[in-house]
Amino acid sequence: MSGITVKFWLLVGVFLATLRFQVFAAAVSSNVCTLRPLGAGEDDTDQVLAAIDSCGQYGTTIFEAGEYNITRKMTWNLVSSRVEMHGYLSFQPDIQYWLNANNTYRVVYIQDQASWFVVTGTDFEIDAFNSGGINGNGQPWWDYYTTVPRLDGDGRPLALTLYNVTAGRVTNFRIESPPFWCNAVAESKNVVYDGMVCNATNTNPEFYGQISSRTLMAEGFVLTIGIDTYRSDSVTLINWDVTTGDDCLAIKGNTTNLYVANITCRGGNGVAFGSLGQYVDLPDIVENVFMEDMNMVRLASYIQPNMGSGVYFKSWSATVNGTPPTGGGGGLGYVKNVVVQNVKVDNVTTPISLYQTDGAEAGDAPSKYQFEDLTFSGFTGTAQENTIVSIACSSAAPCPNITFSDIDVAPPSGEAPMYICQNVINESGLPDVGNNYERSGYQFKRAMREREKKSNDGLRKEEKVGRGIDDIRRVGSTAKGHS
């Protein structure tokens, strides 16, 4: 397809999208609900739910500036509607109340996560104008978990969950101080997030500059995640600014046709594919992913000492160790047809990484989870260690077709860059730097980092899902065009 033809279809896509929103706006303009906060100490939950009940279908709901105190779980079922949020939904930090499973929803199956706010429905837009969104009042939660063990699935609520959504759009939305993950999208399709700020900044000086153990939440930026995508197709994430202590973005199982662009990650672990293969009876398929224009920013060490990766991939071992949400393994599936390009890294630990030993113990069987057809292009910046690329595929499922181009990341001064490719078939594009280039073919070798001690395995499953990369990029670019 010629460049002119592609541009033509891009213009058609933008026109149709704009027309749809114009028709949509006209359809809902006659049914408008406007809210104002009731004030300090008052409970706004009832008036919020009443407004959504009245105007959430074929109408417009307008939140004026201020904080709306929310004290119990909410579902918004939006149909051909628009929500304008100039203020914040402020979820009150009654920790023991929210930890009671009866007081949250469990619609995100992966790791048994809890949600206090679920949006579902079709053909809607939530626009927060960069001046509204959610206040999760997370500091009391983070302080609480410095002395109480934390485990996945323990009831810490996700701030915003989109579940069973078709043609939904979230625009210029802010999530401040989330107790746990900022966002999750599950069982959904044709969803656009355009403009998202996720800020999980610890303000308790007692915990400045600490990296927490797996049982504490005491980092300068707490163990929160920007978004988890799960069982969803045709999702677009553009114009994000994420400040967390864990994954900036986490691409979970059965995410297909994903477009990601213009993402800034401040602290944490970078962009993750995984973890995958945790559930022995649930295959995880991730296919057709295009990511571009991402920036990984390391913050001052006294604030946040962690900036783990640019992009990394992880799967569980083939041996089942315990049960989810905290244990598991043995799951099958594949990651296929992924392009990551134009990534700037600022003193990250390892810019590009893949390992298949998540949750593994000594003597575990190597993973049968399959990674294939991965392309990395245009990585620039600096690394904290000299290992620029560390691809440690399983000996039971070697990775076919790993392609690199324009990898220009500088190691620490005076050190030679190191590139590791273990159990990779048809790797191309990495510089050959003698002893600092490790190509191990089918033989497993010890990886350089602690998390890559053991090999896992992966299954190749030939299944065609959705469109190709060019189509994903075209759709994503169209979404950017009518932001």
Automatic annotation (TrEMBL):
What's the family?
A: Belongs to the glycosyl hydrolase 28 family.
Q: Which GO terms describe its cellular component?
A: extracellular region
Give the E.C. number(s): 3.2.1.67
Which superkingdom, per the lineage?
Eukaryota
Q: Which GO terms describe its molecular function?
A: galacturan 1,4-alpha-galacturonidase activity; polygalacturonase activity
- This protein is called galacturonan 1,4-alpha-galacturonidase
Please spell out the taxonomic lineage of the organism that makes this protein.
Eukaryota, Fungi, Dikarya, Basidiomycota, Agaricomycotina
This chain's source organism reads Serpula lacrymans var. lacrymans (strain S7.9) (Dry rot fungus)
**What enzyme category does the UniProt record give?**
hydrolase
